[in-house]
Amino acid sequence: MGYLLDEVFLQRLSRLQFMTKGRLGGRLSGIHVSPRAGMSVEFADYREYHPGDDIRYVDWNIYGRLERLLVKSFIHESDLPIYILVDVSASMRLGSPPKIHYAARLALALAHLGLRSMDRVGVFPFAHRLLASIPAQHGTSHIRRVHETLSSLKAQDETAFEQSVMEFLSLTRETGLVLVISDLLFPTGIEEGMARLLYRGDEVAVLQILAPEEMEPSGSGTAQVVDIETGRFVALNLGPTTLASYKERFKAHQARLQSFLEEQRIPLFTIPTAKPLEEVVFGTLREAGIIR
After folding, report:
1. Domain that holds residue 132
2. Are 119 and 55 in contact (CB under 8 A)?
3. Residue that terminates a domain, selected from 60, 77, 94
4. What pLDDT, in 10s, does the model give residues 199-208?
5. Is residue 38 within 8 Å of residue 74, measured between CB atoms?
6. How many CB atoms are closer than 10 A to CB 57?
């Protein structure tokens, strides 16, 4: 795919950070700030001493007055893993530019943003299963490997989202911020896969990438339509009735996705490939509070 993002865009990204909504342990707010015992910038609270705690953080003044062993805890920035799951199934070949190219650019922008914020970032392409992935690591040098992986993505095979999520969970032990980038055209739906992520305690956001012709198809006459993932052909007579039926079914599909994700408090962003990436990152995601 060549170089995915220009230097000016990357420089603008350096001024942004990820936000979290507090699902992670119910304790995060703002730019993933969490109370932990240890050296940091701001005192948070006391808690009872437990065997194995670092005695350096015992407040001996309180012990002298109350004869209770209390340990200081502090607030500091947590090292939040950011996991980017990128759909590389065959349906992502559609569009001009292809949806997979747009998804790769968006994934790189989000990875760059996370790494600049000193978070660990991992990239996990998936189709019928999880493909060769990059574990979550930190450091600006990590971006080279991320870029190489995203630049080499090729759309292939059918989609099995739940299977991919199961393999992802087996590779990662920490909860984190999971960004799913996909067209969400899954034959078995998204419910089971999302349920597994939420059960572990991950915070999830979904970025749905669609080609304009998928959202507003046009054309007329007889046509052979092929399912790009299964290879099955269907003969259609394209006309007002057929197109109206497609749009109605597409609208119903989107409504089901929106309803399910809203129930689970998972934000959904539907992004046409015709929308400039800058508008998505600096407009849509920023206004929604995903980044700041």
Report:
1. 7-22+79-212+264-287
2. no
3. 77
4. 999 999 999 9
5. yes
6. 17
